[in-house]
């Protein structure tokens, strides 16, 4: 039955109690029980995130003349990202509401750039590995494009020969991820860049997960191959601030090799009563709180703070990987950062995942191959032993030959 707006207002104290009750069934991410959706950097960073957001929650990034503070903060955040990802001096970018918007904008920009340079992009094609995020499918659907998904190799990395063979006369864009979301693997961006340059294509690197993590892991001595603007063929990148930038949602960045490229992203229209309307992103109104939160957290943590968080997460991943192997599971591929996926041929991993969920642990799943997907943040270092005990119990509870029959869903 449809709910009706109450005739009279409700006191906030009553509403607060009611809303807390509504949240009683939510996953307990504050105690490390969520391995997706929430990125827990610790109470001090959460406080900075929250206070900066509320300080500017009424301001609107749509109006840089009205709110030059937000324009200055966004400029700083974008500059921080460009510097971390080794962009050339002429590079530029914008903040967005999240990874999907960053990816949609990169596709739109690449399409318009190709059209401006004489290509017929009607039913234009994007070549991407099977591991690419569904936001590329969404972008293709919205823009009347075709996404060509290419199978992975046995190592769960893009099959480079197959990627090259998939390029056709309508291809204007290629995609690689650093890391890919399903398996946490850094894909061979340098090799993809060479293919893109050979064919004169736009290469986008989806680093929504790793853009604000991989640079600090590399500083800590982790083996992180070149994946950013150091690779000559990379024209654009997406990197989420509300993941491992630890900013409040929703905040991401889309970055371009040059200001000239970024200009193809901007929407401009003066054919209406109020004169020129210009928006750099898909959104009109842009929450000032998200911009302020990103600015505050990045300045609060600095390089040293981000390096410390990255070290905690990588150490936690290595401990969990060792633990799942001891329990007879196989880690998929060779993860290097904060995501790992594991499974088993002896017991149905999706059934084990349901057992973990029944014990209060929320994680992602993969259907190809069947597995449990873990995206770790600093808070998980406190619950490694507890999680491994729960995993053992869930494994022991799963009956041989039993297979989970439900749909595998991320959302």
Protein model, in words:
This protein has 411 residues and is an alpha/beta fold. It has 2 domains: 51-298, Type I PLP-dependent aspartate aminotransferase-like (Major domain) (Aspartate Aminotransferase, domain 2, 3-Layer(aba) Sandwich); 303-397, Aspartate Aminotransferase, domain 1 (Alpha-Beta Complex). The chain has 12 helices and 13 strands. The protein has helices at 12-22, 43-55, 68-84, 99-116, 135-143, 160-166, 189-199, 214-219, 259-262, 288-326, 349-358, 384-397, and strands spanning 92-96, 125-129, 146-150, 171-177, 202-206, 234-240, 252-256, 267-269, 277-279, 330-331, 339-343, 364-367, 370-375. The strands form 3 sheets. A 7-stranded mixed beta sheet has the order 1-7-6-5-4-2-3, with helices on both faces. The chain has a 4-stranded antiparallel beta sheet with strand order 10-11-13-12. Strands 8-9 form a two-stranded antiparallel ribbon. Strand 5 (202-206), helix 8 (214-219) and strand 6 (234-240) form a beta-alpha-beta unit. Helix 11 crosses helix 12 (384-397). The radius of gyration is 22 Å and the shape is globular. The mean pLDDT is 95.
Summarize the structure.
The longest helix is centred in the last third of the chain and has 39 residues, at 288-326.
